[in-house]
Amino acid sequence: MTVRHWIFAVVISLVSTLQAAAxxxxxxxxxxxRSFVQIVAETTGRNFVLDPRVQGVxxxxxxxxxxxxxxxxxxxxxxxxxxxTIIEGAEADRIVPLSLAKELAPGGKxxxxxxxxxxxxxxxxxxxxxxxxxxxxxxxxxEAVLSAVPGSGLLIISDRQESFRRISxxxxxxxxxxxxxxETIRLRSGKAAEMLTVVQSLDITPxxxxxxxxxxxxxxxxxxxxxxxxxxxxxxxxxxxxxxTIATRVVRLNYADAKQLEPVVKQAFADRVDHFGxxxxxxxxxxxxxxxxxx
Length: 295
Description:
The protein is an alpha+beta fold. It is about 35% helix and about 20% strand. It has a five-stranded mixed sheet with strand order 1-3-6-8-7, with helices on both faces.
């Protein structure tokens, strides 16, 4: 190898190293989507061709500087939120409405960007980002978009502005050095806050374990040993049932004696018990009402 070739190789290697180490800060508020595409193109070195229908305003906030690869992941996330997608090409990638890419009904108007939505990046330091993603995904509304970047320890969330404070506090609470798994238990009938009070009153939470409620998502967040989480699941399963309607009906007897018939009725329904071991059926005799009129 000649000296000239060696210097050229060193320069190429140095440029590649600088590009790999480059970090970029993202604090974009109400920025034109096309301007964001230009930032991504300059950061990643990719070429993009925009469909004329690609319009809108985006908000992208990251607490710290991120790598070019993370910028591209965030970019894909923003496109998904705005019902856009990328069609990769040899020289350049096309950014088009998702409806066009999927060959749906032609002429359909692409969804615009809602002003109440924004994309934020949350850094996770102590817990695998995929694990936290599994915990908070059920707590997000259906229209929210969530993705994890395991290599960078980042959560990318696109949701309404009012949801970020709640989600950020939850991630901060979950992102603590620990060994135990976090589990989300969704409730169908009961209320999370009331269920939390009941479970806490059982005094089954071991040292180091945690139990909290997310009222908005109506779910319990359980962290601790597998045995503890299993017990909480069992308690919730037993209690999280639709409330039973108790009906009372008075049957007027024309010939039989009510006092003598009462033990017979109780015995007939003795085997009908609920999951707590209590009978849901009862009877009480009123001898004086045997032949009374209707009421």
